[in-house]
Amino acid sequence: MAQYLEFEKPIAELEGKIEELRHLSGSSSLNIADEVARLQQKVERQIRQTYAKLTPWQKVQVARHPERPHAVDYISALVEDWTPLAGDRLFGEDLAILGGIGRIDGRSCVVLGQERGHDTETRVRHNFGMARPEGYRKAQRLMNLADRFRLPVVALIDTSGAYPGIDAEARGQAEAIARAIETCLAIRVPFVAVVIGEGGSGGAVAIGAANRVLMLEYAVYSVISPEGCASILWRTRENAPDAAEALKLTAQDLFKLGVIDEIIEEPLGAAHRERSATISKVGRAIASQLRDLSQLDGDILRTRRREKFLEMGRKGLS
């Protein structure tokens, strides 16, 4: 059964009527095809009107939608000959970050993906996409592997942030994230990152300091979650919608600010309604960026990547 967000209630009611009519058509001789077609057109108009005026907070909800395609879905559909690689060679494996080697559009590359899980079992297994230090150290290891064998790196970003537990802090969470960002800026191979859902805090930047940063239309990318920001500024999570507005975390805001390089349009009603179409669009965007970046020398790639992020810092100070 489809899951609807709070602001999608009018859409849910219309689609519920369509399902009722289809059920009747299967159990009687009534011809209700015309009525179903009329309601379907009304649904499409309602979806278009609703999604044309989403607030930043509503876009956060869309980015977190449980039926939205996750990293495992993109890897399964886009990466041929996928060979997963595990462990950081220091402590252990962290399933919050998936990593391995495969081919995208016929091009061999290293793929990193933050996986949140789709149900209770997989969410627990992947720790809701919140990596511990070993996850970021695994990402470092695989990026260095890519650099050594001259393989492009593709990162799929979808996390609310790094895991904040005591065990993670004890094993050097902040240092692991900093080293991962350092590795992102040091490698001499094409690097493309895509924010496919929620890009939260340093946990996202740790594998996102890329030559090209792409973002799905209804994804979000921010230094802190709206709830976390509201808890700090207003001492209550109830002001999360106000925080979302102030954080400028939408793809449209970030493109204007120069934080991301491209917005990938989502199908009508967002990625959770047309999963395959969304994944195909992301695949085409990644392939296009890799073709462009592959024409550049390794030193140029690294220099431009560093300058890109240093320039963001300069703008912030000016």
Low-confidence stretches: none
Largest sheet: 8 strands, mixed
Count of discrete structural domains: 2
Shape: globular
- Secondary structure: helix percent: 40-55%
CATH superfamily of the largest domain: 2-enoyl-CoA Hydratase, Chain A, domain 1
Q: Would you list the SSEs in sequence order as H and E? A: HHHHEEEHHEHHEHEEHHHEHH
CATH class of the largest domain: Alpha Beta
Short synopsis of the structure:
With 318 residues, this protein is of the alpha/beta class.
Describe it for me?
- By secondary structure, the chain is an alpha/beta fold.
- The protein folds into two domains: 6-53; 60-317, 2-enoyl-CoA Hydratase, Chain A, domain 1 (Alpha-Beta Complex).
- Helix content is 51%, strand content 15%.
- It contains 14 helices and eight strands.
- The chain has helices at residues 9-25, 33-52, 56-63, 71-78, 120-125, 133-148, 166-170, 173-186, 201-205, 226-233, 240-247, 251-257, 275-293, 298-317; strands at 80-84, 97-104, 107-114, 153-159, 191-200, 212-216, 220-222, 262-264.
- Strands 1, 2, 3, 4, 5, 6, 7 and 8 form an eight-stranded mixed β-sheet that branches.
- Helix 6 packs parallel to helix 8.
